[in-house]
Design brief:
alpha+beta, two-stranded antiparallel sheet, about 500 residues, single chain, about 45% helix, Transferase(Phosphotransferase), domain 1, Phosphorylase Kinase, domain 1, 14 helices, 11 strands, five-stranded antiparallel beta sheet
């Protein structure tokens, strides 16, 4: 029986006493009822009073736990703030890659529980919102103009007060004027110094504005306006050009762009072409006026057009001159297409690299000698066969490519019958002779000999007397102009339009 009785006893749990039975769940209304609250208060007993030493022990333990938890929370918050500031600093460096910079200082976490033992190297920023060394603003003078009484009276003209006011007013200068910070310094500027700085700041602002406006104006000249851009887009859409690569040269009258050629039905387009965009500004028109107003080819049209439309005539003039030169087999760009003030020509160069100008290329003595003879032959052919005078020939308008000299920029070229045609020719001869003589070419002629060799005229050469030579040229031009007006014929020994023999000089039929 005893064994049976022992066997029937409930075995003890190895984890201690069994948990009491779970109280049945009650609804929210039961929990909120006052009767249930009183019942729970009676079962749990009254709250221990403060006089009880055991209660003080319990409170001290709870306060200790709360203080340690607060310190742990503050340390975690501080670590979080540091990580946030580091991330913000990295984002700030990503933005500050150009000349302008921004600051995220106002977004950084300024934690009040910063560790006092941390070094200054860990923080590379400074919060100046509450800077104790920042200079206070000067006190304003009352409306009556003075403050104090008797010997302590201070007027608005006081030297110290004015000096501090002037220092504070420096903050109103333009941002580009660096005035410094001056924190913690009692700086005083006299009226004379402040007025000088103010006037200098104003002058610098005006000068900067003028330079900026001038730069924008020059940029608009070197770039293309909306109408020119539209013409270039139409060329690309029509297949004349594959793409426009960029600007390769800028001059006083035009801008040259490089482009990849496309196709035309009438004629083939080179693989590489250039777009010569003539500037449409009125300032450049004054320089074009003498070259076009007396050209018989455009004289009738010149009087009927406004200055802006004459730019198209100027581009057309260069196209016709290039066609004449190409027919005479003079090395020059080939005119492909003309659209208003845009002239498409073949590219003198290779693989997007333009040919160098004759003034920039380094040639040996033999090559420079050959270049001189090439230029001499081209000037003679241009005058005698093409019936043209370049009128702006110099080392700046001659290119060296594939062992040959190439002529460019012939928009201002005129015929010898132009009232100033021979003067333009003599100026070209002076430029060419001066350049090759500087390059120590022994075969280079002086300007007078070169002029006679090109034109075929036999003007007597004085002993370095340029004035007499120029007067002879002017007299010859005057005689030719009168003869052209009476008979409509040329008196210069140049070939006629139909390829006939040259006319004899000084003969009046």
């Amino acid at each position: 029986m005893n064994q049976i009785g022992l066997a029937t006893e409930t075995p003890k749990s190895p984890w201690g006493q069994a948990a009491p039975a779970v109280a049945p769940a009650c609804s929210l209304n039961d929990v909120m009822s006052e009767q249930l609250a009183r019942q729970l208060e009676e079962e749990e007993g009254p709250f221990p009073s403060l006089a009880d030493p055991t209660a003080d022990l319990l409170l001290s333990d709870e306060v200790g736990d709360m203080s340690s938890d607060l310190m742990l929370a503050q340390m975690l918050q501080m670590q979080f703030d540091r990580e946030f500031d580091d991330q913000l600093r990295r984002e700030e460096k990503k933005f500050n890659v150009g000349p302008l910079s921004i600051s995220f200082e106002n977004f950084r976490m300024v934690h009040p529980y910063e560790d006092s033992e941390s070094s200054e190297d860990e923080v590379d920023w400074q919060d100046t919102r509450h800077d104790p060394y920042r200079a206070d603003k000067p006190q304003a003078t009352p409306r009556r103009g003075f403050s104090g009484k008797g010997k302590n009276i201070t007027t608005k003209h006081d030297e110290v007060t004015c000096g501090r006011k002037n220092t504070a007013r420096m903050d109103n200068f333009a941002p580009e004027v660096h005035v410094g910070d001056g924190f913690g310094m009692d700086l005083k500027l006299s009226n004379q110094v402040f007025n000088s700085l103010k006037q200098h700041c104003y002058s610098e602002q005006r000068r900067s504005a003028r330079l900026h406006e001038k730069k924008e104006h020059s940029t608009s000249e070197q770039a293309v306006d909306s109408r020119t851009r539209l013409l270039m887009y139409k060329m690309v859409n029509a297949g004349v050009l594959e793409k426009i690569n960029g600007c390769i040269s800028t001059g006083k009258e035009s801008v040259v762009f490089h482009a990849d050629g496309g196709s035309l039905e009438e004629q083939p387009v080179p693989d590489e072409v250039v777009l010569k965009v003539f500037k449409t500004t009125l300032n450049e028109f004054k320089n074009r006026y003498p070259y076009i107003k007396d050209d018989y080819r455009f004289r009738d049209r010149f009087s009927k057009l406004n200055p802006r439309k004459i730019i198209r005539v100027w581009a057309e003039k260069e196209m016709h001159n290039l066609c004449r030169m190409k027919k005479a087999q003079i090395p020059c760009p080939e005119a492909v297409l003309l659209k208003k003030h845009i002239l498409v020509m073949s590219f003198i160069g290779k693989d997007h690299v333009p040919a160098p100008k004759l003034k920039d290329v380094l040639l040996s003595g033999e090559d420079m000698k050959n270049a001189f003879y090439q230029v001499l032959q081209m000037m003679q052919t241009l005058y005698q066969e093409c019936n043209l005078v370049h009128a702006d020939l110099s080392e700046y308008n001659m290119l060296w490519f594939e062992g040959k000299v190439w002529l460019i920029d012939v928009s201002q070229s005129v015929e010898p019958t132009h009232p100033h045609g021979l003067e333009f020719l003599f100026r070209d001869c002076k430029n060419v002779s001066t350049f090759f003589q500087k390059k120590d070419v022994a075969e280079a002629m002086n300007p007078y000999e070169l002029f006679n060799a090109v034109s075929g005229l036999k003007i007597p050469i004085g002993v370095e007397d340029e004035a007499d030579f120029v007067s002879e040229i002017a007299a010859l031009e005057k005689r030719n102009e009168d003869h052209v007006q009476r008979r409509g014929k040329k008196t210069f020994p140049v070939e006629s339009e139909d390829g006939g023999p040259p006319l004899n000089p000084g003969v009046d039929d």
